[in-house]
Design a protein that fits this description.
The protein is α/β, with parallel strands linked by helices and 285 residues long. Helix content is 40%, strand content 14%.
Amino acid sequence: MAIWQTSRFDIDLSQPRIMGIVNVTPDSFSDGGLHATSSAAVRHCEQLLLEGADILDIGGESTRPGAQPLSEADELGRILPVVHHALSLGVPVSVDTYKPAVMQAVLDLGVDIINDVWALRWTAPGSARSGVDVVAEHGRCGVCLMHMHGDPQTMQLSPMQGDVLAPVMEFLGQRSQHLMARGVQSTRICIDPGIGFGKTVSQNFSLLARQSEILRLGFPLLAGWSRKSSLGSVSGAAADDRVVASAAAAMLAVQNGARIVRVHDVLATAQALKVLGATQGAAQH
């Protein structure tokens, strides 16, 4: 049985898990401003759990293409009230951040997972302390390492060239090995190929079609297709009309081996995964 070890929970990945997105931001690409206040974000956490979320992923800084960085103090000001409440809800809580100081602050509160688009590479100006240091010293928290080409300000202006599978796998393999060399158990690590982070539409779909090859790295895979622009490119739907496309992509990702799907539309995703599960179960009889 596959387990993702986190601060308070050993998450059973024998069944796919839904990570519900809680953006405490005014500028996220599809739901910016909808949950920007603490009270709205707290209500959203509870709603996502009612809809079937297994994990809550709280973020205070948008990483959409062209997004501007946020100070550590402003990021913590946005997320800490929401994190405090989410930790009382009895489910694993993830924080989407790349800043070591923010990681340390939320882990000190008891957060279960650090979900980092920079794969623990970022350090604050004038500081040598990285996310690797924070996670390695914690001793138990889960971590998701994501592949990103470039940075959020420039990644879609000059995306990757050619076949991206090999460089994505090489990067994720190197980052996970670096973390394990610091004493982090493999059971704490999850990987994310970074759909939409410095990749073209065709490259994103190539990663989905060949996703099973990424599993050879030996870590659970998290897929983040929800409302991404690539889905809009093939469906013609605006960001807030991509529920069906997002649920379809999540189902395909799980069918190709993903164990966690990070989504905005939890209810639709949960229904799609139930259909997939029933089909897979029937095929085994």
